Structures are given as C-alpha cells and as structure tokens.
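User: quick one, sequence for these tokens?
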C-alpha cells in the first residue's frame, strides 16, 4: 500500500520501475443485502491480489466515488458523475506519473467504464503509460448472485444474509430502455438486478481468484520485462 510508505521509501523504489495500481470503485446502493462500498471492495481486493502476485505493484488509496447516476433515488448512493470522474482520474494520473512510470486503473463498477476510457485515452495521448483493467466475467447485472458471492467471499460479516431477495431478473437488453429513462429505481424496487438467493462464499472466492489471475496475466502482457523489486 503506497499510503503506508514515506516519500524517501517511495523514492527508493523508483529505480525498480514500480507499477501503481489504482482501485476505482463507487459508493452506491447494492440492494438491501450488500454494503455501499461493494464495488470499491472488489477493486481493492483485485489490486491487493495483484500486488501479492506481482511484487513490483504498489496499491494506491482507492477512488471510492464513481459515476452512479443510475442508482440515484436509493439512499446512500454518492455519485460524482461521468465528467468529474474523468477529470479526477486525469489529474490523479498526471500527478502519479511524476513518480510512477506505469499505472493500471482497476475498475470495480460498470458505470465508470466510459469515463475511465476517456480519461485513459487522454492520458495516453499525453504519452503516459496508463492501462485500464475491466474484470471480465459472466454474471448478473447488479447486486445479484455474482456480486453477493464476491462480497461473501471477501467479507461475509458485511453481507446481510437475512435480507437477500430476488430482484428484477429480466435480461438486461429487455429492461434497458426503462433503465435508461428512469434508472434502476424504475425497474427494481429493492435495487437488485438478478437473483442473489444462490450466492455463496465459495463461488465468490473462486471468481475472485480467477479475476486476480486474469488481471496479473494482463499486467504481465502490458509490462513483460522483469523488474528487480525492492520492498521496504
Ligand atoms: Zn457493483
């Protein structure tokens, strides 16, 4: 964790070409059973898992706010919107590249993707070596079986298992017009898109391991050269 280090310690690592992994999440409703930090928790877990496998990776403090406009109308959702997220990432990475030559953004929230892509295009246009990792997995859309399993795998005490209820299970393509017009509130009263009733910690832990492997392989492809690593 880069936040645990002092500046001379970070300075000492620079020659070894560290990669900064920035978890990008959201603070938004995840149904009655999951905490608002679920997307951020996933992004942090992936970045931390990556650092455990790739010793040249340092994990930055997470960006815990994202573009969550579609979840407005549910108490607790704290969104900064697309434009602010894009600008935040651009400025953060401009600052980070003073110290780190290589940065990977680890995204935990689908609603952030467009803003992150725009930010990365802009930063790469400035010759900065920034990459964007988007977890690839099959699963239900929001706060369903997949995310509930992931959170059960990460921190079972944080899941209100007694409140797990099915949400709107229609295919995303079918509900998209309603979703675009009225947000998640228009299609799902409890904020769930999917069915979390079959979720399990085992399933979540398995998926998490798969995603960490996926991310590690991706990082190895982006930056294949071996890095001599020193960690204080
Ligand atoms: Zn989520």
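Assistant:
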């Amino acid at each position: 964790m880069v936040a645990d280090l002092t500046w001379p310690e970070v300075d000492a690592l620079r020659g070894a070409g560290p990669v900064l992994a920035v978890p990008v999440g959201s603070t938004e409703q995840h149904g009655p059973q999951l905490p608002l930090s679920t997307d951020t928790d996933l992004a942090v877990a992936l970045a931390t898992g990556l650092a455990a496998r790739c010793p040249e990776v340092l994990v930055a403090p997470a960006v815990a706010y994202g573009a969550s406009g579609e979840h407005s109308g549910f108490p607790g959702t704290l969104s900064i919107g697309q434009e602010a997220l894009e600008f935040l990432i651009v400025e953060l990475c401009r600052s980070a590249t003073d110290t780190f030559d290589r940065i990977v953004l680890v995204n935990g929230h689908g609603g952030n993707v467009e803003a992150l892509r725009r930010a990365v295009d802009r930063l790469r246009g400035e010759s900065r070596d920034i990459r964007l990792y988007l977890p690839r997995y099959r699963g239900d859309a929001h706060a369903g079986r997949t995310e509930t399993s992931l959170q059960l795998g990460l921190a079972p005490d944080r899941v209100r298992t007694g409140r797990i209820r099915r949400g709107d299970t229609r295919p995303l393509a079918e509900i998209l017009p309603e979703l675009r017009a009225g947000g998640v509130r228009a299609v799902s009263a409890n904020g769930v898109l999917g069915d979390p009733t079959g979720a399990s910690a085992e399933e979540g832990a398995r998926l998490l391991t798969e995603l960490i492997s996926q991310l590690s392989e991706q990082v190895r492809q982006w930056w294949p050269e071996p890095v001599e690593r020193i960690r204080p």
